[in-house]
Amino acid sequence: MNTICVSLGGSMVSRKTGVNVSYIRRLAKLLKKHVNKHRFIITVGGGYASRLYINSSRQILTNEAVLDEIAIAITRINALIVKDLFSDMDVYPNVVTDLNELRMAHKSSGIVFLGGLLPGISTDAVATLTCEVSGSKTLINISEDSYIYDRPPTDKSARRLESVSHDRLIEVAAIRDSRVAGSNFVFDLVAAKLAKRGNIEVRFVNDDMEQLELALSDKKYKGTVVK
Q1: For residue 23, what is the DSSP state?
Q2: 170 and 191 in contact (C-beta within 8 Å)?
Q3: 36-45, 92-101, 168-177, 181-190: least confidently modelled range
Q4: pTM for the complete prediction?
Q5: Is 226 within 8 Å of 169 (Cβ atoms)?
Q6: Which CATH number covers residue 69?
Q7: To which H or E segment does residue 149 belong?
Q8: What pLDDT is attached to residue 182?
């Protein structure tokens, strides 16, 4: 049984109005249809809660590593919340906190959850590392936009990219990667370089469950593909 790794953007889980329970339930329902075909490693981001705490903490903290640790703690809380809604499946009982535990969890359970791991490393990069650790060649990145652009999408001249190489993804990621705690961008530079190193196909999707199911099934879907 092959493994699909998922980078579940924090914006899908944590919003200004609170935890996006309806979306998580729909995601669990969809993945339940695929657990007999695939194993899953799901890395959960920080979202609104992370940015709220980071922005507030900057009033008293200047150490980016400490701010990263705060963000990591919040991603793990988000992962814990999401994991609970998958409790009727073959889920590893804890939120994984290091790569050694990930190796053991992946051997014993069909679905594994984790958040951030190290200061300075985004959850996108962590998700890409989970591909390397598990031997997976497929990473699905779920965020608010299913496409990446050649420049920030707020720029009127931004061009949507349908299918790109790893090298092109690295170029685009480099434009917006600030290495600052709480940064919000489609896919960071470290993750892009790791994806190239591992020859990992990255599929970008949004909250549309129909498109996600197509991506899970290796069918054509609406979103950027990097390979």
Answers
A1: H
A2: no
A3: 181-190
A4: 0.93
A5: yes
A6: 3.40.1160.10
A7: strand 148-149
A8: 47
